[in-house]
Amino acid sequence: MNGVGSPNRGEKLSRGEKLNLNNWQTQVRKGLLDIVILNLLRHGQCHGYEMVQTFKRIQGLKIREGNIYPILARLQTDGLVTSYSEASHDGPPRKYFRLTELGEKALIDMNAHWDHVIESIQSIRKGTDR
Fold it and tell me: How far apart are CA 49 and CA 55, in angstroms?
């Protein structure tokens, strides 16, 4: 390990450090779910199962169907999404979600912030932040 608590190049993480990396990855995923869900809904309404299937195709963002509904409920409480039920040919009615006007405005701000964060991280990684 070097002086700042990260491995030197070529040095592998120990088992304990790997567990911390897994925790970090989990926290990153949790932090990104709102912006990813809102961006999905920006392209049109969909139901929770559709969202979960999309998440499964994005490495690092897998989520179980039961875990997405509390997030959607919070986004609805915050006024960022709205929902409605529609009959399904495959079983019980499906609950569809879509962005509200407030959600669209919030997403613009969230995407701008995300873009700034990514640019700043890339600058730091390249050593051009000084």
Answer: 10
